[in-house]
Design brief:
This protein is of the alpha/beta class and 292 residues long. The protein folds into 3 domains: 76 residues, Orthogonal Bundle (Arc Repressor Mutant, subunit A), CATH 1.10.10.10; 97 residues, Periplasmic binding protein-like II (D-Maltodextrin-Binding Protein, domain 2, 3-Layer(aba) Sandwich); 97 residues, 3-Layer(aba) Sandwich (D-Maltodextrin-Binding Protein, domain 2). Helices cover 40% and strands 25% of the residues. The strands form 4 sheets. Strands 4-3-5-14-6 form a 5-stranded mixed β-sheet, covered by helices on one side. Strands 11-8-12-7-13 form a 5-stranded mixed β-sheet. A hairpin with a 2-residue loop joins strand 9 and strand 10.
Length: 292
């Protein structure tokens, strides 16, 4: 049933096999056995993948609930036993390999029977559609029905290169920002603190990238002003390649979050992974802050 749910959500045997870390032949055999036992066709197989039949649509939700209940039952019976199965985590490309990968490696060392698959991308992945157990996100979370656990803070500031400031000046207040070239990930708004009041502005710019390291390089090159985490800008601030601007209006402290699909009880593998992340950042308090 777990295999069937993966195939249904992935839209085909090949994609589900990649998620599960199994061969396509094993996945196909499991599906045939399930259909034979139920006496109905759950999937309509085509050259482009697999589509749910009417029976498959009905059975998918039942199967997902049963699989989740079985996992909860096993954890109840073995609350401190060895973790098994697979943990699939989406991590940001900007920080994942340096800041989060050590925790995933620690998890694998502590639980040798647990398979861990990590994917690195700065885009916001669809956890349910793409089959992830959880994702790590950095910054400010947009409204959603996902469940988020904050594991630590992250500080940042507005920066620019001396060359940019010489050519264009520096913004003094949030009202000045729309007149400057902003380096952004997309169409996001920037927030700043004016005393106890949060001010939101809509920056404009011709250079965009979905990766914080790329935006840092663009700022060093003098292409514009950028709101960036301190852990990315610290070496460039130390060398003078970047300087803080508009320091009277600091951005609010952002956060590092583990998010998961909605549900009453997170799996124990999720709880253990989250606890390891929290402990990692408690041991390294400067990892994300100024000078980290």
């Amino acid at each position: 049933m777990q295999t069937f749910v993966e195939v249904a959500d992935a839209g085909g045997v090949s994609a589900a096999a990649r998620r599960l870390g199994l061969s396509k032949s094993i996945v196909s055999r499991r599906l045939f056995r399930l259909e034979a036992e139920l006496g109905v066709q759950l999937l309509s197989r085509t050259t482009r993948g697999a589509a749910l039949t009417e029976a498959g649509v009905t059975f998918r939700d039942h199967a997902a609930r049963i699989a989740a209940e079985f996992e909860m039952a096993r954890e109840t019976l073995q609350p401190t036993g060895e973790l098994r199965g697979m943990l699939r985590v989406a991590m940001p490309l900007s920080f994942g390999p340096t800041h989060f990968a050590p925790v995933a490696a620690q998890m694998a060392q502590l639980h040798p029977r647990l398979r861990i698959h990590t994917a690195y991308s700065d885009r916001f992945v669809d956890l349910i559609a793409e089959g992830f157990d959880c994702a790590i996100r950095v910054g400010y979370l947009p409204p959603s029905n996902l469940i988020a656990k904050r594991i630590g803070p992250i500080t940042g500031q507005l920066v620019a290169s001396p060359d940019y400031i010489r050519a264009h000046g520096a913004p003094e207040t949030p009202d000045d920002i729309p007149a400057h070239e902003a380096l952004m990930q997309g169409t996001e708004a920037w927030q700043f603190m004016d005393g106890n009041r949060t001010v939101s502005v809509q920056p404009q710019g011709r250079f965009k990238a979905d990766n914080g390291t790329a935006l840092t390089s663009a700022a060093v090159a003098g292409l514009g002003i950028a709101w960036l985490p301190d852990c990315l800008t610290h070496p460039h601030l130390a060398s003078g390649a970047l300087v803080p601007v508009m320091t009277r209006y600091p951005p609010p402290v952002a956060g590092i979050y583990v998010i998961r699909p909605p549900g009453q009880h997170p799996a124990r593998k999720m709880r253990v992974f989250t606890e390891l992340l929290i402990a990692h950042f408690e041991r390294n308090p400067g990892l994300w802050g100024r000078g980290g």
